[in-house]
Write a structure and sequence with these properties.
Elements: E1 14-21, E2 24-31, H1 36-43, E3 62-65, E4 68-71, E5 84-86, H2 99-106, H3 116-128, H4 135-141, H5 152-163
Parallel strand pairs: 1-5
Antiparallel strand pairs: 1-2, 3-4, 3-5
Helix pairs in contact: 2-5
Bound molecules: FE2/S2 (inorganic) cluster (2 copies).
Length: about 170
């Protein structure tokens, strides 16, 4: 039997699904309108993924879904039911950094670091897409990732170095 909402009552639609993040499965029951970004940060405590604009213009929230880079603020968490999500927490470890992380460190590819998780997830996407052939190409395909500190030259240098490293993709 379908229960009708009483006059003035607001029913929040719930969604139940499984998120697979960095090779770990999580069962979630959340408001169906929750974004992947908010589910990662607020429900799973994976705060490496950053919220900048929350409207698809800064790239700080970039993660991978099924190996492709996406803006997690523009995707509903429920859309990722059963799909593989990778966040910055799934890339390298403190003791064993990923080659792209090494390259960002070596080339000072950050200042405050707020945009850096998104830059690195986007750089990994760009490398696996084979779009890091020239500095111009890197700039074009990283153009969705904004850096308020203006570390762009160093970010490009880091990605160029990583592009020469065949282990640099995820
Ligand atoms: Fe998603 Fe800015 S927080 S693009
Ligand atoms: Fe500060 Fe990019 S390093 S916003």
């Amino acid at each position: 039997m379908t229960m009708r909402a009483k006059p003035g009552e607001v029913r929040v639609p719930q969604a139940e699904f499984t998120l697979r993040v960095n090779n770990t499965e999580y069962s979630l029951r959340v408001d169906a309108r929750v974004t992947l970004l908010d589910a990662l940060r607020d429900r799973l405590g994976l705060t490496g993924t950053k919220k900048g604009c929350d409207q698809g213009t800064c790239g700080a929230c970039t993660v991978h879904v099924e190996g492709k880079r996406v803006l997690s603020c523009l995707m509903l968490a429920a859309q990722c039911d059963g799909r593989e999500v990778t966040t910055i927490e799934g890339v390298g470890t403190e003791e064993n950094l990923h080659p792209v992380q090494e390259a960002f460190l070596k080339h000072d590819g950050f200042q405050c670091g707020y945009c850096t998780p998104g830059q690195i997830m986007s750089a990994l996407g760009l490398l696996s897409e084979g779009r890091a052939g020239t500095p111009e190409e890197i700039r074009e395909y990283m153009s969705g990732n904004i850096c308020r500190c203006g570390a762009y030259q160093n970010i490009v240098a880091a990605i160029r170095e990583a592009a020469g490293d065949h282990d640099a993709t995820l």
